[in-house]
Amino acid sequence: MSNILLAALIGIPLAWHLGLTAITYYDAERVGMEPRKKWVAITFCIPLFGFFIYLFERSELDYDPDEDPYRGNNFNIHPSRADDAPLRSRGDDRPDPDAEWDGDWEETTESSESDEWGTQRGEWGERDDETDDSR
């Protein structure tokens, strides 16, 4: 292998690595991420990923709640989906969204045989579907 190719294969990534470490060194003090040597050590010891760790931590310092476009809004719903009812999951004990509301929610206390989350039926180690005596 020629010396020029070896220098390029080793020198270019090493120059990038030292350059990213130098950027971290100068930027950490300007942004106020103390101690600066900690961030330089992270960037130097964990090549490339350490620099991204630094960038992600640095971006958290720039948060201004007055400029946050999502502050006060839980989520946005597309107008075409605004009238969709949520899907009920298995074992869901929430009231039916399509039912008429009379001002008070009724809690369901009865459990069916297919209710997986119902009352305790069997002893420890028994499966609920094996309690049938016909076997």
TrEMBL record:
Q: Cite the entry's keywords alphabetically.
A: Membrane, Transmembrane, Transmembrane helix
- Region annotation (Disordered) maps to 67-135
Q: Which protein are we looking at?
A: Uncharacterized protein
Work out whether the entry's keyword set contains Transmembrane.
Answer: yes
Q: Which organism is it from?
A: Natronolimnohabitans innermongolicus JCM 12255
Biased-composition ranges, Acidic residues, are 98-116, 126-135
Specify residue ranges for compositional bias: Basic and acidic residues. 80-97
Q: Which residues cross the membrane?
A: 6-26, 38-56
